[in-house]
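Supplementary Note 2. Why include the ligand at all?

Several targets in our set were suspected to adopt different conformations when bound, so apo predictions alone were not considered sufficient. For every target with a known small-molecule partner we therefore ran a joint prediction. The input for cobalt (II) ion is given below.
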Amino acid sequence: MLVSALILHSLLLTLYCSSVTASKTLVYYARFMATWSPSSWQSKPAGQQPTYPDREVVESTVEQLASLPPLVTSWEVERLRVQLAEAAEGKRFLLQGGACAERFDQCSAEIITNKLKILLQMSLLLTFGLKRRITRVGRFAGQYAKPRSADTEERDGVTLPTYRGEIINGPDFTAADRIPDPERMLRGYEHAALTLNFIRSLVDGGFADLHHTEYWDLEFVAHSPRAGEYQEMVKSVSDSLRFMETLAGVRAAEISRVDFFTSHEALLLPYEQAVTRQVPRREGWYNLGTHFPWIGMRTAEVEGAHADYFRGIRNPIGVKIGPEMDPEWLLELLEILDPDSEPGRITVIHRMGHGQVTEKLPPLVEAVQRSGRLVLWCCDPMHGNTEKTASGHKTRRFDNILSELEQSFDVHAELGSYQGGVHFELSGDNVTECVGGARGLTEVDLERAYESRVDPRLNYEQSLEMALLIGQKVERMNGQRD
Ligand code: PEP
Ligand code: CO
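The joint prediction is reproduced in token form.
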């Protein structure tokens, strides 16, 4: 063991001396190779994991998963990293959105198409409002595992494991559904593959026609006191597109290829381990189950298994942070996850809540600035603004979501940093889960079309309106600067 370590050491040293550019990679390697592997997280405390009844079945499932072809490629992952680096520098903007938790029974053509449609339409509004290129990342094709506040749930004297997402167990309050089943990892992978396959086909086909505002469902605009402004914004997007097309003599879809990247919370570590691969002619390990995995707020302990898993993969990664995060913790986490300060590696997704963002965010931004790191700052205005109605529905108020977003843009502008992204839980359908917006959805409306099993999402109209309002906010900010 010692001998091989010494041989490795001298080999690294020789190579180190031979090239300056190679040196950084070798330092990276020397630091990690001896200690990290896709399964090394297993020696650390892992939060939010299910208790499977049979370890052997977990191991054979992981083995089976590991032999399947990947869902994404390393070059797509690298392309996203470049785009996120541009966003961190203020040259781009990230739009990340999708379900809180995907459901297997909602892996349908209509739901997937509608999700792409809303993300594409929002991104178009943002392109014109922010005068930036937009990187679209879906919370889809793998967003199946959820952190929960309790391990078990009790009803009428019966205690069962909590529902942790389709990839772990089922939602019904029966032992058959709730006992974690490793086979579900395979079902999750298959559903992610089906989703991604359809997304790729839509993107390659004529789907980008949805650029055209005549296909948009804009009926809600009339219900808003801001109807006039909204109509004007949509018209100007539409005119600009037509102008671009006339000028270039091609359809907008062909002017800029429409890319979608995938993301999910990499929570269920046996699954993430199985989809972590090495590829020919590239160094290191890639999570090839998604382009952009993120580490959740509830599993972000520095000494925890999740931080250990994330530090070893080459993907760009999201780090969710809430009001409990303090500057020392964040800096320590960044040091572990990104020791070489690689451009595009880290996106910090902050979710403080509209009442706390001006107090909690500045010390964190300042600490990162002092450390000399450049991260991409992205605001998740959803997770800090969840409340429960008297009738027991989880909801979020449109105005609170918007307020956190606007305050957060201001905080970054005041500190001389750049908020280069937004993160939403949204649906492309007319669900009724969040209250407010142009149609003024109320708590009574929540009874009508509440489909999420976990967190409430903005619906199609609320999402489009949010994109219009972000555009307006940034235009106002730019106007003040001119
Ligand atoms: C989520 O994004 O659904 C989630 C659980 O977020 P957070 O880790 O920020 O609570
Ligand atoms: Co959520």
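The chain has one domain: 84-481. The longest strand covers residues 92-98. Comparable summaries for the other entries are listed in the accompanying table.
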